[in-house]
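Chapter review: from sequence to fold.
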Amino acid sequence: MANEKSSGRTTKLSKKAKAAKPPATDQKRKAASKEVEAETPIIDEAATSAIPDHNDESSQLNVRIAFHIHDVSRMRRSAYDQIMKPMGITRAQWWVLAHLSRQDGMMQTQLADLLEVGKASIGTLLERLEAAKLIERRPDALDKRARRVFMLRSAHQVMKTLMQEEAKFNDRVLAGLTLEDREHLLHMLSQIKKGLSEFEGSKSTEPE
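The token string follows.
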């Protein structure tokens, strides 16, 4: 009997000990929680409040404007290429003639800088214009190694035709805008261009 009572007491004590001892999984969770708290950096609410929210209405509007500017530029180039194609003139050739119409006799290197192309590219471009009898290259009077580019009479006629077609093209594209709208648009685009100039050191190639 004594042994049975002793055995019963031992069993009860063993059960109490097991109940008092927390499960191993709970201990692991608590330890892991403390480690996470120790590794988590303290966030300064004042600092985070200064970080701009790129999901706000203003940022979303800016993205839409950027996409529209890109699409309008791409679509205009594509449409204008269709106008020039029947004349056998590419956009790059048109830029060369446009610059020469403002300053005939430019240095070949100057044209390369304005069009932002290399010497080989401008050389190929001018060769094609020469083959079309639109320009001619002559040695510079002071530096025989340098070459100046001059428009031929046929190029002036091509420019006249291109400018007439461009005027029609612009009237068609901007038909939905009043004169006041166009002036306002020009002002806004100038402001955007001014902002972009801070990121780009190169000169504009847009003829005025």
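Two observations follow directly from the output. The radius of gyration is 38 Å. The chain is about 65% helix and 5% strand.
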